[in-house]
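Friendly challenge for the regulars: who can give me the C-alpha cells for this chain first? No prize, just bragging rights.
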Amino acid sequence: MVIEGPLKDKLEALKFKPTSRRTGKPLVGTAAPASGTQPAAALPTSPTRPGGGSLAVHVSVRCRPTVSSKQTVDINSESLGGDKVALKLTVPKSGNEGEDDKTRVDARTYRCNTYYCPTASHEEVASTTASLVQHAMEGGNGSILCHGITGSGKTHTMCGSSSSPGIVQSVGRRMFEHIRDQVASGRVYMVEASHVQIFSHDGSTEQLIDLLADVEKDLEVKQDPRNPLSYVCAGLQRIPIRSPDDLQQVINKGRARSQAKEDAGIAAARSHCMFILTVESMSEQSANGDSGVSKGKLVLVDLAGSESLLKTSSSDVARRQALGINRTLASLSMAVNSTSGTSAVKGSFLTQLLRDCMGGSSRTLVIATIGLELEDMEETVKTLTYAQQMMTSLTVRTSNAGLNRIDQDQSSLMQMRDRHNECIRMLKEKVSDSREEEQEERRRLQHEMNEINQRLLTKDSAEQTLEDRLDLCFTSNGVHLDCVALGPVQEMRQQQFSKMDAMRSLAFENWIAWRTEISEAMNNQMELLRKQSQVELESLRASVEKSQQESERVPLVIEAHEAAVVKLQATLQDAQQARRAAEDEASSLKVKLATAEERASMLSTRQEELRKERAEFDEERKQLRQQGEQQWQRLAVVEAELSKFKSEAEVQKKEIERLNAARAEENEGIRSERESWRCRERDLQAEVASFRSKLEETKREAEVQELKVSRDHGDALSKWCSQSIIRARNGSGA
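First reply, four minutes later:
Bragging rights claimed.
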C-alpha cells in the first residue's frame, strides 16, 4: 500500500516518512523498489553517542529478524527530534472486504534514543559503545545492559559469533586501540576481566558463580571499604587482558563453564551474566606531584529473559524463578532512575554490583531486543515499556572531576610499581650492606696484618740495622771482632729485644683486658636478659597455674554450655523449620499473588476488549435499527400503493357493472355476444380475485419484490380490462 493524494502532501509537510515493517517499503511516495533491494530503516542506524551530549542513560531498541512462517506485526518509527524516536506497533486484523485491515494495538507511544531494524549489523549496534569505552579509559564507570525475552537476541547481540563479533569484542578492540594510541604519551594501562553468573533456584535466594575460576569457592558481595557507595564481589577472579585475543579466550571460557553448569543442573538456565572490565592507567608524575592514576570500569550484563508468568512452565520452581527475575529487573529499573537512595540497590546482587556504574558521572547503555511475532506481542509491549522507563533526564558531568582518581594505596599499578621499587631498593641495600661489611672486615684484617708486619719489620730491621752498624764500624777500623768480643753488644741487643717483647706483651695484655671487659659487659647484659626472662617465665608460670586452676572448672562450664547449646540447637531447628515453613508459605503466597496479578491484568485486558466489542455491538445495533426504520418506511409506501391499486380496481368493477347493464338493454341480436362477454367477465372476476389474494399475501410478507410483481400484474390486468372495454364499446357501436 502506498499513500497518495492529499494525505501524502500533509505527511510530507510534516516531514513524516513512515515505512512498513513487514515489507520494508516506504508508505509515502513512489512504489517500493525491486525485490533485490534492502528494506530501508525509518532512521539511520548510526546512533547518537550516549552521554556525548547530556543523557546518562541511552536506550536502543534492536529488532530481531522474524520467521517467515509466523504471523507478525508491523512496526513504524518516527523521529521526535534530537535523540528520541517513537515506535508504533500495528497488528493485522481479519475483516470484510472494504474495512480497515489493521487496528492500533496500543495508543501510547514507545520512545527510545535509537532504533535498529532487523537488517542492522553488529558493527552498527556496537558503534553506540564508542563513547562508553572512551569514558572508561579516562577513568569513568559505565554499564551496558541487554534486556528482552528469551530468544530475542540478547546473547547474540552481546557476544556475537565467530564470523560477526558482538559488543564485548567491539569494546575490547576499542580499548586496545585507545591503549595503542596512548603509548607515545607514556601512559601505562592495565586491563583486567571478570565473569560472574547470578541465578536463583527458588526465586528468593541468589547465588554467584565465578565463571573464570579453576577452583570452586564461595563469593560474597559486600560494601567496598574504600568507597561506601559501591559494592565488590570478594573472591572474584580477575584475569589480566593484554590483547583482544586474550579477551576472546576469557569469553569462550566463561560461556563454556556457564553451559557446563547449566547442563549439570548447578545453575539455572535463566540467569544474569556480568562481564566486568576494569581499566587502570598511570602516567608519569606531573609537576604538582600528582601521580595521574585513574581507574575505570565497564560492566556488560546479559540480563535474564523477562517472560510472562503465564507462559512459563507450570511447575512451581519455574514460576518462582520467573517471579524472582521480574523482581530483580524491577529493582534494576528503580536503581537506574534513583538519584540518591540505596533502597533499590540492596534488592539483589545485580543492583549492588552495578551501584558504582549508575548515577553521578556514570553512563548506561540499555539495548532492548524485541521480536515481531504476533504470539510474543504481550512480551514485546512489556519490553518496550521497560526500556522507556529506563530513560532518564539525568545529565552527566563531562569534566575530569567526576572521574575516578584514586590514591596510591588503591592503585594496583602503583602497588606493583612500589613493590618493584622496594625490591630494587632492598637488593641495593643488601648489596651495599654486604659490601660495607666485607670492606670493613677487610680493612680491619688489613690493619691487623699491617700492625703485625710493622712490628715484625721493626724487630727485624732494628736487629739488622744494629748488626750492619757494628760490622761497618769495626770493618772501617780494621778490627775483627769475634763472638766473645761481641758478647756485651749482643747482650745489649737482647735487652732491646726483651724491651720490645715486653711492650708487645703489654699491648697484648691490654687487648686481652679490652676483650675481657667487652665479654664481661656482654655477660652482664646476658645476665640481665636472663633475669628478665626468668621474671617473665615466673609470671608465665603463674598465669599457667592460674589457667590450670581455671581449667578445672572448664568441664563444668563446658557441660553447662553444651546443655545450653543443645537446647539452643533444638530451638534453632524449630525456628529454622518455622522459617522454612514461613518462606514456603510466603513463596507460595508470592506465586499466588503474582498469578492473581497476572490474572487481574488479563481480566482488565479482557474487560477492555469486551468494552470495545460492546461498543462495536452497540454501533451495529444502531445501524440495524436504522435499517429497520427504513424498511418500515418502504413498507408503508408499498401499502399506500396497494390501497390506491384496490380503489382503482373497485372503480373498474363499477364500470364493468355499468357496461353490463348497458349491454342488457341492447338488442337481442347481440345477446349471444353478451352471454359470451359475461363468461369472459366471470373469468376476469376470477382473475381479479386471484390477484386480490396475491395482493393479500404480498401484504403479509411485506416484501418489496413481491409487491412489485403484484403491481405489474395489476397494471397488466387494468390494461387488459381497458382494452376489453374499449373493444366492447367498439363492438356495441358497430
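The longest strand covers residues 188-199. The mean pLDDT is 73. Your move, everyone else.
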